Amino acid sequence: MKSTPAHTLKTSIMVALLIIFNSAGNFFFGLGMKRIGALQGWSRAALHSAFVGIFSSVWIWLGIISMLLFFATLMLVLSWADFSYVLPATAAMYAVVPLLGHFVLGERVTGLRWVGVTLICLGVAFVGRTPPNTTKKG
Questions:
Q1: Other CB atoms within 10 Å distance of the CB of residue 112
Q2: Is 106 left (phi over 0), alpha (psi -120 to 50) or beta?
Q3: Is residue 136 domain-resident?
Q4: Assigned domain for 138 exists
Q5: pTM (2 decimals)?
């Protein structure tokens, strides 16, 4: 099945939104949890404190909203594009997340991790050169 240019553009925009929403969600979760800090044991009081901290954090709520937008967009794009196209194409978020971690959160990203990110990006480039939908509607 041949994709039209409009169909391909629509799918590309939706995949870009998937990458943005997922990366933002993970970034906000990471930021929120860094501010909350590590769990201080497994006692009832420690778990209650962590629960309150998590669900009262604006960063965690921004992460939840971003992930809900990601899932809604994912369901929408999967209604017309192949699963085997969409999920590999969204792997570009694996490049965005270390960039955010490094430049915004100040995390150290090793050279070996960057090599892995580069390999993932090459795979995304290969997938992006294929049509978003190859199945016939029946």
A1: 8
A2: left
A3: no
A4: no
A5: 0.81
At 51, the amino acid letter reads F
Buried-exposed string 6-39: b where 16+ CB fall within 10 A, e elsewhere: eeeebbeebbebbbbbbbbbbbbbbbbbeebeee
Q: Which residue, chain included where needed, has tokens 């929120």?
A: 32
Tell me how many domains the chain contains.
1
List, for residues 30-40, the tens digit of each pLDDT value: 999 999 999 88
Domain that holds residue 81: 5-128
Residue with tokens 């309150």: 52
Which position has the higher pLDDT, 89 or 100? 100
